[in-house]
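Consider this record:
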Amino acid sequence: MARQSISFTKPNDEWLKALVESKEYSSKSELVNDLIRQARKQQVQINWIRAKLERSENSGFTEDTKEQILKQSKSLLNG
């Protein structure tokens, strides 16, 4: 595992220490690695949503009413 040296602001350091002291994490390293994993997972979700939005925007507009759109959506969900 790669070793790094990083500096934290006082509020962030105190927050990290409090989580370690509460036994939620065994060390600051474990906590920071968990935060990074969460951020990476969140980025995957953001990228998925962004791709869906871009595909939707590129597909153009519809003349369907909101009732027609709702009916179609329900139909797709119900198989």
About this structure: Residues 10-59 form one domain. Residues 8 and 75 are 52 Å apart (CA to CA). The radius of gyration is 22 Å.
